[in-house]
Amino acid sequence: MKNISYKSEILKILEKQSNGNYSNTLTKYSYINGAIDFVKFTRNPNYIAYNGEMKLLKLIAPTISSLQEINVYDLGPGDGNKAKYLLNRLNNVSKYIGIDISQNMLDIARLNK
């Protein structure tokens, strides 16, 4: 089995973050220690993607709620909190399907429904 090391790439990302660049580039490494670590990672106040996505959901929820009937396919639902927020504000969802590469993440999202 080939030994693959991501050390140099991760160190470059951490260097960027120490200079204030909090891009999402570490996300692909967050499954190294499992789904629980990923949830902790996204709750970090320096992880701006989660807050940005929540702001977007708050903006678009009224428009989506005016549609007659919708199916929601959530790619990478994370802990399920964003879907929960959206689905609690919509009365027109006929189907919700969460899709993720990690069964553990789907289990966490299911617990948060």
Task: Provide an overview of this structure.
This protein is mainly alpha-helical and about 110 residues long. The protein has one domain. The chain is about 50% helix and about 10% strand. It has helices at about 5-20, 35-40, 50-65, 80-85, 105-110; strands at about 70-75, 95-100. Helix 4 (about 80-85) links the parallel strand 1 and strand 2 (about 95-100). It is globular, with a radius of gyration of 17 Å. It starts with 6 loop residues before the first helix and ends with a helix. The mean pLDDT is about 80.
Structure in a nutshell:
By secondary structure, the protein is mainly alpha-helical. It is 48% helix and 12% strand. It contains five helices and two strands; from the N terminus they run αααβαβα.
Number of helices: 5
Task: Flag low-confidence runs.
Answer: none
Please tally the β strands and state the result: 2
Number of domains: 1
Strand proportion, as a percent range, falls in 5-15%
What are the secondary-structure elements, in order, as H or E?
A: HHHEHEH
